[in-house]
Amino acid sequence: MQKKAAAITPAVQPTPIVIVSCRDSQGRDNALTVAYCCNCSFDPPMVMVSIAPSRFSHHMIKETKCFVINLATKEHEGVMQYLGTKSGRDEDKLAKLGLKTEDGRTVNAPVLSGFPVNIECKVVDSIVTGSHEVFVGEIKYIHAREDLLDDEGNILFDKLELL
């Protein structure tokens, strides 16, 4: 079969859509939907999230240098839609949705308790890449539902129905 030119857009798909939660220096929590998220280092374990500077959460992560990646499953589709279309500048989105949080164990950011996997990250670097800033986060702690772990504590991703 012949190939032809495709539209030039970010073309590495699929990638999971995640919810990134963060806290500002005054203790105000927020969360947003992030489509650009991936692994970027095996040793030390690191991930990266890409957030537009216009987003309310951007300054929070710049300020506190930490965030939590909350893996969203199909049951969180409505939450993901809401967090991706509303701004924390206008309302407390977590309260509006009734999302339960707990403090991170290693970072000063909220963990969304109702999500099956939460990845606490400390920002070690960032780079502006056009429309977004990529925050590189070293993984400091991972919360995972017990039924999603094998005997060695590895996450069984095939059991998750990620968005």
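^ that was protein a. below is b, sequence first then the tokens
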Amino acid sequence: MTTVSTDRISELERKIDLMSFQMDLLVAEIREQRLRRDQWDELRSDLAPIAGEAMTLASNELEAIQDFVQPEDILRLLRRVLRNTKNIEDGMARYESLMDFLDDAGPLTSEAVTKILTTLEDFEQRGYFEFAGAGLGIVDTVVTTYSKEDVEALGDNIVQMLDIVKNLTQPEMLAVAKRMLDAVQRQQAAAELEPAEPPGLLALAGQMRDPEVRRGLARALNTFKVVSASETETAAATIESNMKNKPPEGGA
């Protein structure tokens, strides 16, 4: 056998092997297509009853709403949905973020609500709510008792009233008030033991020999003197202010 014959035989064998390989590929492709077709036919046969029921249900629903919704309305709504696809997607993303936040904050919120309820229960046991109710009753009494003019006058004099309260809260003023209250209480206790007849002028004159009585009278007179001088200064200042603000005679 010549070399040419050997080469031709080798070439034929190579071509036969190539054709065999290609035939195997074709057979495998045909099998795959047949498998897909079978699967599709099986899926179509399974979905056919469901699709039929869906079409029947849709037809019934459309018949029920055909008096309220027209096909062009559905198409218009569909176009709007398609135009706002990005907005819908953004909204869904925000909704998912909100749900994630609520899931994370849920335990914290529950703990905070529990703490608030515990605090409110503690306030109720201490009587804060009853005190607040009584305070509202006082406010209601004030509102129904005083008029708008009274409140405006109170606002005009609130600074002076606060100054008086501030002075009354000084330690020396509190000490004086305490001594006065003690004296009044002692005097009330002594008044129960006094005779029914009032003391005469001689008895009162006899009490002037007591140094404490004379000292008390002197303090009372000095207090009256200071109050009278303050009232005199206030009246003089008022007259002077009125004279300054009085328009000149013959003026426009």
